[in-house]
């Protein structure tokens, strides 16, 4: 096989942020930790959006949600623009055979993604009940991938997108959304380290303890895939990427542009090419992943891509890497209109809201969870300030808004201007007023007879 054309496995989980042992969390994830030890881990990798489809769209196109058109959930009548191209299409042009395992959730029309082969059913919406999406559980998806690799029923180079359902919340019998502890098991809530950005309350601990059961399943699934690579002699010739789309499904995380909402795991292993056992604290956006992959396989990066390659950071040419000074994040539609744009630098986070919104937006699955119930009265009610500014050196949990303090006015004005300029340069429709939902035509359709 041409050394410039490694196999590529892109493994992605759901709603798990950086909740991993290798990111300093008190949880055992030995397979992911081993992958990180053999490759590179990115400590400050952020998604473009704190929600599934928009963030996944950015990962797959290298462009921000309002640029590629996927400003809401794929099952909510939002789609990529017709002319958008995604990673498997780029690598297909370079001679790759492309495969989809498990969920994808960037389009209702899987055919539009043009994979050579789709291996799993039900890979659109992760759903509210894991039982409905049995095929997308990590253990099942990993088993299919392992059998596929064992059978060698493919041509190299191979590209595989491998999507796990976990750690998405699921609707339970009492109507609340939890983590299906009856299937996955759970840890003892009393032994779980509380989240630093939430008060230490019973509901938060309960949900964290349950989520960890899903996290163990993710780690087990990745171990199955890594073992299959080893057993089939593919490890040395395969680029493995493990990531997720946004932060965990807890208040002040998923659905918010705070760091806990947009932080995302990113681990990459490519023996002999990516420097092993390295941790990078440079700012990285998930729009940067696609151009980096194309760079690694010697494919020209299109000018229209928003991201920038960080190949020079992770190879022996690291000294020539031009570090990012800022990353951008956004949210427009989820299960309600929540238009927010944000800019983050090494030290500061500036968040601009464009609608009447609650203090902290709680997506439905979080709102009706044990954890959500703990904060509804304090965070789930209006009003939120239209501008937020956080000095991350003094307030890393983004709990002290200094936007009106005199000594921060220069920072406020600079970041506000930079955010506006980015929105203007990228033709953000939010600058023209409220963004209509994807099903606006259906809303307007009102059969009636004139009198």
Automatic annotation (TrEMBL):
EC numbers on record: 3.1.6.-
Record-linked CDD domains: SGSH (cd16027)
Pfam families in UniProt: Sulfatase
Keyword field contains Ubl conjugation: no
Keyword Hydrolase among record annotations: yes
Sequence ranges assigned to domain Sulfatase N-terminal in this UniProt record: 6-299
Signal peptide: none
PANTHER family with a match to the protein in the record: ARYLSULFATASE FAMILY MEMBER (PTHR42693), ENDO-4-O-SULFATASE (PTHR42693:SF53)
Family note: Belongs to the sulfatase family.
Name of this protein: Sulfatase
